Amino acid sequence: MIRSVISGIGSYVPPTVVTNDDLAQFMDTSDEWIQTRSGIKERRYAEDGVFCSDLAVEACRRAVDDAGIGMQDVDYLIFATLSPDYHFPGTGCYLQAKLGLEGQGVLDVRNQCTGFLYSLSIADAFVRTGQYKNVLVVGSEVHSSALDFSTRGRDVTVLFGDGAGAAVVSPCEDPNRGLLYSELHADGKHARALYLDIWDMSRKPYMTHDSIDNTDIFPKMDGRTVFKHAVTRLVETVENTLKTQNVNPDDIKYFIPHQANMRINQIVADKLGIDREKFLHNMQNYGNTTAASIPLLLDETYRAGKLERGDLIMMLGFGAGFTWGANLMRW
């Protein structure tokens, strides 16, 4: 039976480091306040004029090189982002051109923090059915251009950073490797708990001076609601994945969670009775890079030599929508 495997992985973050102390120069906050509430110490910001597709280019090149194939061997491209280059066309088209691809299908996925999980599941289906051989999946974000750097926007702005992560998904006949299971969920009743109003297409015209003055250009978040539902849904998803696949938590080497908040991931681990050390983190260095966070963390773990062939890992995430899910994979 053909399974899909991550045959290559890569990531990229822009060089500019923005610390908590840097943010404290613009808003009423402090390093202690941010770290206590999120675990984040610093994040990366792209320079002016840099699109999320530009960050994605480097991550994709590294993933393709790691897979040992050429860019021309990529059959299909899936791009996950909540910070697209433009409202339309899809950013996948811009990325396709920048990678020198021509004719391959592209798909934009707008599932925010769970975008990579959804994209990986789509790639898995394409590969297992034999429709495509090498599917390039990328999550990339440039949040820094759309954040409110006044104290009013503090609760959101301190969390987010820019970055990209990519993976090549290819077929494998080894029964002991590959994506074993995906579980994906959504609950649109809570869409207004984390949202951006500026693209309200019911308004005519949809963008006015009032909408800008009313801060519709900045993301809004009900932090308590997001936190509560994230913990509940992630615990449920991990438990159901383990039960469905008849897997013991001790069998999993690492959990690769979305990097939104250190406290969320620690509480999830505690409620599941799983050693916190199994839940890996790099949010302290990059903040929340939404669709890029899981592949970015996975790539760092791989590059550090922590993953060996046959290791069982679980990727999991929760984000705006609400959407959430998990991918169980044998490396």
From TrEMBL:
Annotated GO MF terms: 3-oxoacyl-[acyl-carrier-protein] synthase activity; beta-ketoacyl-acyl-carrier-protein synthase III activity
Compartment(s) where it occurs, according to its Swiss-Prot or TrEMBL record: Cytoplasm
Catalytic reaction list: malonyl-[ACP] + acetyl-CoA + H(+) = 3-oxobutanoyl-[ACP] + CO2 + CoA
UniProt enzyme class: transferase
UniProt KW keywords: Acyltransferase, Cytoplasm, Fatty acid biosynthesis, Fatty acid metabolism, Lipid biosynthesis, Lipid metabolism, Multifunctional enzyme, Transferase
Enzyme Commission no: 2.3.1.180
Domain of life assignment: Bacteria
GO cellular component: cytoplasm
SUPFAM superfamilies to which the protein is assigned, alphabetical: Thiolase-like (SSF53901)
Primary site of residence: cytoplasm
Family designation: Belongs to the thiolase-like superfamily. FabH family.
Subunit structure and binding partners: Homodimer.
Protein function: Catalyzes the condensation reaction of fatty acid synthesis by the addition to an acyl acceptor of two carbons from malonyl-ACP. Catalyzes the first condensation reaction which initiates fatty acid synthesis and may therefore play a role in governing the total rate of fatty acid production. Possesses both acetoacetyl-ACP synthase and acetyl transacylase activities. Its substrate specificity determines the biosynthesis of branched-chain and/or straight-chain of fatty acids.
Domains: entry comment: The last Arg residue of the ACP-binding site is essential for the weak association between ACP/AcpP and FabH.
Name listed for the protein in its UniProt record: Beta-ketoacyl-[acyl-carrier-protein] synthase III
Species, as recorded: Desulfatibacillum alkenivorans DSM 16219
